[in-house]
Amino acid sequence: MEFFVGLDVSLDETHFCVVDECGRIVKEGRCPSEPSAIARSIRHKGRRIEHVGLETGGLSQWLFEGLTKEGFSVSVMEARHVRAAFAAMRVKTDRNDARGIAQLVRLGWFKRVHVKSLDAQGTRALLTMRAFLVEKVTATENSLRAALRNFGLKMGAVTRRTWEARARELAMGQEMLEQIVEAMLRVRRLLLVELEAVETRLLAQAKADPVTRLLMTAPGVGVVVALSFRSAVDDPDRFRRTRDVGSWLGLTPRRWQSGKTDIVGRITKGGDARVRTMLFEAAATLLGRVRLMSPLKAWGLRIAKRTCMKKAIVAVARKLATMLLAMWKSGTAFWATRREPASAQDFAPA
């Protein structure tokens, strides 16, 4: 007889439920949220666990790796699908959630989520740290600007190198402001040092990775965009068609159709928000700053002329995601003309 397990995971403890192939509950309870503790709780002599399921969450990747090493077949389930399946549940408890997940695993009524490799998770952690530091540097500068503005002192347009000198110049001669400025500048300086260290590490990682260098041949795609896309996709073969990556990133329009009603709305904004933002910025750079004309840029400019620049940027971002995945799968570098450059093979992944 086959058995299926549902896990409702929280930070400290996990509720589990084991059901047989007929849906009858064989065992249920709770245990610490540790792979070894969960494995001991659901394992039983003579019981062959066919499948273990859990929702996406903060511990899902770690538990997936740990339970896989314990010898179980594990699936991480899309949380939105699980929530929709439990919409009719009148009493929602962790115990009932574990029961429901076990039944979903038994019936196969769930969408499996790709669990990223350890390398992809490490890259994502670095990119998250970089985004955090950039946000804090910007918040520190804006806070200091606002403090000076209250006294009629305006920073104006300054660069990162001239920021400190300009702030000290405005606060000169006012003891209170000088103390505030020096304190904020020390915080800003420390954040910039850490930000530079993270960016140096990301740059070294991009140089050492042939796939990232390949993606960076596309116009508008730099180190951060290429690493964000690479770590998010992780495995290009999980997309049967390259155009599927656009909908996976939430860059395709919403649609609601019923009878004679057919409404096409804005993009779904599903999937990884950071990668979608990076692709949007890359598309804006391609259409605005990149001088080299290419079929992709010409196509985007035609859309902008027909509709508006914002819609053109979204369309180019979706097309760019498709092209990046195609480049990754084929090992071919981007070229702006119909003729392939001689250096394209230099970027082919190993």
Automatic annotation (TrEMBL):
One of its GO terms (molecular function) is transposase activity. Residues 5-150 form the Transposase IS110-like N-terminal domain. GO terms for biological process: DNA transposition. Pfam families: DEDD_Tnp_IS110, Transposase_20. Residues 213-289 form the Transposase IS116/IS110/IS902 C-terminal domain. InterPro entries: Transp_IS110-like_N (IPR002525), Transpos_IS110 (IPR047650), Transposase_20 (IPR003346). This is IS110 family transposase. It comes from Paracoccus hibiscisoli.
